[in-house]
Amino acid sequence: SKLLMETANESGLSPAEVARLRQLVLSSGAPRTMAAHISNWERFAEWARSKDIAIFPLDSSKLVRYALHLDNLECGPSVVPTFRTSVKWITAKLAIDCPDVDHPGLLAIQADIINKRARTLKEAVPIPTQVVRCFELLVVDTNEPDPTRLFVWWWLCMVFASLRFDDAIHVKPNELVLNEEGMFGVAWQTKVERKRRGTKFVVPHVSFSGVDGLRAGWQLLMQEDLERDFWIRNLNTREQFQAAPANYQRSVQWLKFLGRYAVEHYHEGAHEEFKELGAVVNKLTAHSARVTMLDAAVHAGRSSEEIGLQANWKNPGPLVLKYTRNRSAI
């Protein structure tokens, strides 16, 4: 953790406080919980440095400004509540004064984010088939940077397996198995299964373009260090990954950027069609991958049982229409 290695001047902490934090992180508590809190704090510290803001003394006005920054990044509904918890954890462990994490301004921003993002999840638009096809062509294009190809492949896996974004994070890549039928894996934590028994999924060996994008992406993944408990790393640039797991806000921004790029470079059609696809791509969210095949299945007249199997629903009946966009076309 960078916070543990920084000098007192760089982090704003005294040498004793840095040593105390290092001791706590290395010797006690749940490793994943601690790592999450430290990571949240480091992102806050990086933002503060970029704005020439001194973190200490810590006060609620700085937390409010950071929350506004997170909102501008279109963060997920759980990001601000998690950050508030991390602030309480860090200050408690370091025995320093904790600012008011229940500040009215902070809570108002949190409520607004939850309202906007929750609505976005419910009404997430599916990724157009033409864009999925362009993504497949990008994955097999060896002229594109390998990190970009692998990142887009990961989104395609979410599309064809109808995975939630959070589920697609909690996958150990060394446990994935590829055969002629598809790629089989286990999400060790999902929205509905938090006991870490694992929820199985399969990415079928299919494509809209006819290219073997699944195998091309698999070969790229095999070049990675797979000894980790998350599927894909955070894409920093088109040519480089970061060491940390994929981040919600950044991944959605990349999805939109690469969606527009793929349409521009791999789609053939009238000018108006390019404009229409671009407009849809700009509305995509992390949940768009989840709904893409489910929406297509409903409009293709597939049975509730088939759709439920695709979505891993125990009782698909009431959920089929919920996950259908443009219901009037059914």
Give an overview in words.
The protein is mainly alpha-helical. Helices cover 55% and strands 8% of the residues. The chain has helices spanning 2-5, 8-11, 15-27, 31-50, 60-72, 79-94, 104-122, 129-139, 146-161, 165-169, 213-221, 248-266, 271-281, 288-299, 304-311; strands at residues 177-178, 182-187, 199-204, 233-237, 240-245. A three-stranded antiparallel beta sheet has the order 1-2-3. Strand 1 (177-178) and strand 2 (182-187) form a beta hairpin. Helix 12 packs antiparallel against helix 13 and helix 14 packs antiparallel against helix 15. The longest helix has 20 residues, at 31-50. 33% of the residues are buried.
Q: Secondary structure elements and their pairing?
A:
Layout lengths: L1 H4 L2 H4 L3 H13 L3 H20 L9 H13 L6 H16 L9 H19 L6 H11 L6 H16 L3 H5 L7 E2 L3 E6 L11 E6 L8 H9 L11 E5 L2 E6 L2 H19 L4 H11 L6 H12 L4 H8 L19
Antiparallel strand pairs: 1-2, 2-3, 4-5
For the largest beta-sheet, the strand count, sense and barrel status come to: 3 strands, antiparallel
Derived structural class:
mainly alpha
- The count of helical stretches stands at 15
Overall helicity: 40-55%
Separation of termini?
A: 51 Å
Overall pLDDT confidence: 83
* Radius of gyration, CA atoms, in whole angstroms: 21 Å
Give, in spatial order, the strands making up the sheet with the most strands: 1-2-3
